[in-house]
Structures are given as C-alpha cells and as structure tokens.
Automatic annotation (TrEMBL):
Pfam families: dCMP_cyt_deam_1. Its EC number is 3.5.4.5. One of its GO terms (molecular function) is cytidine deaminase activity. Residues 8-135 form the CMP/dCMP-type deaminase domain. This is Cytidine deaminase. It comes from Thalassotalea nanhaiensis.
Length: 138
C-alpha cells in the first residue's frame, strides 16, 4: 500500500468513526465513542458504543465495529481508528484490546483521534503484549 493510499484510508476511517460516534448511545457515562476498521478485503466497517442501564452489558465501539464486520463475513483487518471528542486521546479498554488482538495482526496499527484532530497510534502488540490469541490454542 502506498503512502497516498494509507492517507486516504486513514481519512476515510476517521470520517466513518466520527459518523459512528454520532450514533453512540451513552446516556449514563456521556462518553461517546465511534470506531471504524479497514478489513483485509478493503471494506470499511464501523461501530459505536452502546450503554445499558445494567452497566456490565455495555458494549464498546471497537467490539461493535469488529462484530459488525464478522456479521458481514469479514474476519481479518488492516487497521482500526477510534474517535472521541475527549481532549485526552483514549486507548481501547482491556476487553477491546483482547478482541482487537483476536482479529488484527500484532503489527497492525490502532489509532485514536479526536475532534481537535489530535491522534496517537499503537501496534496491537503495544496495546496487549503477549496477548492470548487463536495461535495459543493450536
């Protein structure tokens, strides 16, 4: 993938994540999150966080994004972008890190962006070193 293609993909992913953010359901925490992923086949999928009055049933944007892709038959991803309107950029929670490690290669990039156009990126390995993955079940 060329540098221009990478830039176009990240821009499209930011837009998709921001759109998903606008659909987030977060009446309790007021912490709205959108996520978008680029699949290995080149499709963009997105998801938002969906809270529940029974807090433990809340599902994060990253997991909803990946689940949406799986529903559509996609199981492999190139990268993931997370969008919030927090001033401090927010990395994925622990549960999301585990799900991300299930579907993205350890060298894949996860990027957090915000409304101020700040961004920070990590590899999956940086987010969850020594992750338990399907390879551990072989």
């Amino acid at each position: 993938m060329t540098k221009i293609q990478q830039t176009l993909n990240i821009s499209a992913l930011k837009t998709a994540a921001k759109t998903a953010y606008s659909n987030a359901y977060a009446p309790y925490s007021k912490f709205y999150v959108g996520a978008a992923a680029l699949t290995k086949s080149g499709n963009i999928v997105s998801g938002c966080n969906v809270e529940n009055a029974s807090y433990g049933l809340t599902v994060c944007a990253e997991r909803n994004c990946i689940a949406q892709a799986v529903i559509n038959g996609e199981h492999e991803f190139q990268t993931l972008v997370i969008y919030t309107e927090q001033e401090k950029l927010t990395p994925p929670c622990g549960a999301c890190r585990q799900v991300i490690a299930e579907f993205l290669e350890q060298s894949a990039i996860v990027t957090a962006v915000n409304h101020l156009d700040h961004q920070i990126s990590w590899t999956v390995k940086q987010l969850l070193p020594d992750a338990f993955t399907p390879k551990d079940l072989e």
